[in-house]
Write a structure and sequence with these properties.
mainly alpha, DNA polymerase, domain 1, hpI Integrase, Chain A, 2 domains
Length: 330
Amino acid sequence: MTTGAGHSSVSGDSSERAPDLTEAAWRAIGTFAAHLRDERGLSANTLAAYRRDVGQFFAFAARAGSGDPAAVDALLLRRFLAELRTRGMAAATVRRKVAALRACFRYLERRGLVPADPAADLATPRVEHRLPVVLKQREVTVLLAGPAAGDPVGLRDRAVLELLYATGVRVGELCGLRLGDVDLRTQTARVLGKGARERIVPFGVPARSALRDYLDRGRPGMLAGAGGADRARAGDAAGDALFLNRRLRPLSQRDVRGLLARYRGGAGVPAGTSPHTLRHSFATHLLEGGADLRVVQELLGHVALTTTQRYTHLSKERLRRVYDQAHPRA
């Protein structure tokens, strides 16, 4: 099949470039997105990213004269990826787009919406695997002590940071917690992870204390601050979300990144410290403490053990200690 002679460029996402998409492309994207949501149970964030990636390609294809998904061939896909690389797009981002296109065309072929899968042999760019940034235990201690315990927002912030480090949950999982998901008696939280997989994660005494203070004084104090007739509306907006933002709505991922940014400077931790850094630190500190890799896998909610193995970059001191203890001629 030909891909058309017209020049096209890669820009925008499917929502921004709606005029470029053909009706056939819109149907394909909608069908694929419904499959991801209803059959594969992908998270809202992953679903949105896949929609953007596939929509961006179909907009590119339309401008190249191949707006019908059935007219797409491997050459057009390679042209699309080449232009992404020319624009300097990160290899990890291109890799995600390749994964989205592979999944999309595989599904479209299975549904009989395209005659063959043009993405079957699409090469995946290599990604340089960097070790995750991990905080030292003393850095974590200083960071978690940052929020003030004298006001409702400070109580919330301390509970958020304590729970992130105590459980290793993803920031999206933390924001999705409801009041009934946390059990202070058993010191456990019920978390809904990727692919709608549910798991139970434990947390320690410091996190329990921070959560109790937040639930006893912080959350009620935030709601009481609305005052008068606004209080009922605030309660309705908050619903049963565990953590609330200053607008008394469920805490968002952006809110969490913002609150962490407020404390990391005073704690002297690296500028790039993010909620995911606390997840990395959680896993690494468990392994350095002797935890079994499969236990850490279960706590993190990883499907594949290979994903957890990236955290096995233990310190040289621990490697030496284990060697000295285990080797007969150490």
